[in-house]
Each structure stands twice: as C-alpha cells, then as structure tokens.
Design goal:
The chain is of the alpha+beta class. The chain is built from 6 helices and 12 strands. Helix 2 runs antiparallel to helix 3. The chain binds copper (II) ion.
Length: 312
C-alpha cells in the first residue's frame, strides 16, 4: 500500500514539473543553431536511455542468477580470478561514452559558435542586446532604432547579437533559436543566431539574477525581410528619439512594458567593446574590473566566448 502512494507522489511530481516546461520549446527549434542543440539533446537522451536499459537488464539478470540459494550456511565459494572481459567492459564502455560525447560536444559547439549553416557569406544583422534591472534593450545600429523588451527579427538572415549588461550578469536565451550566452557588465559577447521561419517566440534571461528575474523576459517575433523593413519604417515615422536622460531613467530598476525609440543608446552610451572594453583592466577602465573578473566564470556556458573575449 505504501509503495502505491510513493509511486503516485513520484508520478504527480513528474507531471507537475513537466507541465511547467510549456511544450518544451528547446525541442521545437525554429533555426539552425537551435536545431543543432535539439539534435544533441535527443542524441544524449537516446544514448543515456540505452545505458539505463542495459544496466537495469544486467541488474535483473544478476539478482536472479545469484539470488539466495539453498546452499549450506558455511558454504565458501571457490577462489575466482578476475575476468578480463568483464573488467574491460566495465572500464572500456564508460571511456568510449566519454570520448563519444567529447567529440559530439566539440563539433556541435563549433557549429553553434559559427555563422549558422546555410547562412554563410550573408551580411548579418547586428543587434546589441543589453540587459538592465529588469529589462532587455535591443539596439539596431543598421536601422538606427531601439526597442525595450521586444525583439523583431527578419527570417532567413543571419543575426549577430552583441550581448552585455548594465546590471548583474544575465543570460540571453531564445530557446527556439538557440543560446544561452552570458551578458556581462564590462565586455561584449557575440551570439550567432538565425530564424528559418516566421512566428512568435519567447526570450528570457536564463541566469538567476535575484529580484525581478522571473519577469526578465522579452517577446520575439520573426518575420520576412519585407515586413521587417515595413516595421522599421513605421518605427521611424512614429517613435520618439531616445535621449540620454530617458535612457538613464530606463536603466533604473523597474519593470517596463514594450517600448520603441528611434536612434540607439550606443551613440551616447557605447557598448563595452573595442576601446570601451574595460573588462580586463585595460587603461582607462574602472578600478573595479579586476575584482569583477574574479566573480564570474567565463567558461561555464557551453561557449568559449571565442570571438568577443580577447584576453589582452
Ligand atoms: Cu570576462
């Protein structure tokens, strides 16, 4: 009877946890980078499933074959030497699994870090995505517009996101396009994405950053280049220009809805890249940068910040 209740509790926990995943967006990719990640996830699930099934089968076999028998209590088994076949399987299989996953990780990381497959040679749309408590600011230098908490992107064009933060470290994540990658306060990281089809998606900060974290989300909409150009035109005709005063107001902690501006904050508050990069204690940076460097781990994401993280 007790076991029944335990099983019921486990089952309801699983159902509750899974229902929070909202149709598992990670496994419903809308672009090549997310497709690569979804493939790796499925491959990992498949291989782990095989391992679990084989191990469980062996366990049942061993338990049945070597179960308590009617031999006398003082029975002593004969001396058995180690079995080389069994030992090589026990040591060898995990080594093979680790080697296999290492190769898969290196290949898929290189794919995800590079310009998306099928988009090589195209001129990417560069978007600066910066976070502040508890908003996302998207600057489109090419179009000279800026949005807050929503992101419109053209389909079938490579996107190059430049990530940084005005507050604590956050992580930029659009599950159906790929990511996540860290946005840090004194350096810019680059994330290459692309959308194959139009539609609405969810984006969020994926790095727990304390108060306001749960609402630190943004709306993503992918559309054809024509519709995107139309939207840019409309923004330029209707939106107010972003001023330094208005922008500094926006940087204060608080929740904002979706906002649209002409111009970008990059004009008066440039991104921490090139000569503005202070992260590694280059001249003119704030004295705090060394201490700050100790606090965050550059390699904890599945990326190595190759492109943007230049040590020296
Ligand atoms: Cu750094």
């Amino acid at each position: 009877m007790k076991i029944k209740w335990v099983l019921l509790a486990i089952l309801s926990t699983i159902v509750n946890v899974l229902s929070g995943c909202e149709s598992l967006a990670v496994l419903d990719p809308k672009g090549p980078q997310a497709q690569t990640q979804a493939n790796v996830i499925w491959l990992s699930i498949a291989i782990m499933a095989v391992i679990v099934i084989v191990v469980c089968a062996i366990l049942v076999f061993v338990l049945t074959k070597y179960r308590d028998s009617k031999l006398p209590k003082d029975y002593e088994p004969p001396y058995i030497e180690g079995n080389h076949v069994v030992e090589s399987i026990i040591v060898g299989v995990p080594i093979l699994i680790v080697i296999f996953f290492s190769v898969v990780s290196v290949i898929s990381n290189n794919k995800v870090e590079a310009t998306p497959e099928g988009y090589k040679g195209q001129d990417p749309l560069v978007i600066y995505a910066s976070s502040s408590d508890w908003k996302w600011h998207f600057s489109y230098p090419e179009n000279d517009i800026e949005t807050v908490n929503y992101l419109y992107i053209p389909t079938n064009r490579p996107l190059e996101f430049k990530l940084y933060s005005f507050g604590p470290i956050t992580s930029f994540w659009i599950p159906q396009l790929g990511g996540q990658k860290y946005a840090m306060s004194n350096m810019v990281t680059t994330l290459h994405l692309a959308a194959d089809e139009s539609g609405e998606m969810m984006g969020r900060n994926a790095n727990f950053s304390g108060k306001g974290f749960a609402e630190n989300t943004f709306h993503v909409e992918a559309m054809s280049q024509d519709k995107f150009d139309e939207w840019v035109k409309e923004v330029k005709e209707t939106a107010k220009p972003i001023t330094e005063v208005r922008f500094n107001e926006l940087l204060k902690p608080g929740h904002e809805g979706q906002l649209t501006f002409t111009g970008t904050h990059l004009d008066f508050s440039p991104a921490p890249e090139g000569e503005n990069a202070g992260h590694h204690g280059s001249s003119g940076s704030n004295a705090n940068s060394k201490g700050e460097h100790m606090e965050h781990d550059h390699n904890s994401s599945n990326s190595k910040e190759k492109s943007a993280h230049n040590h020296e």
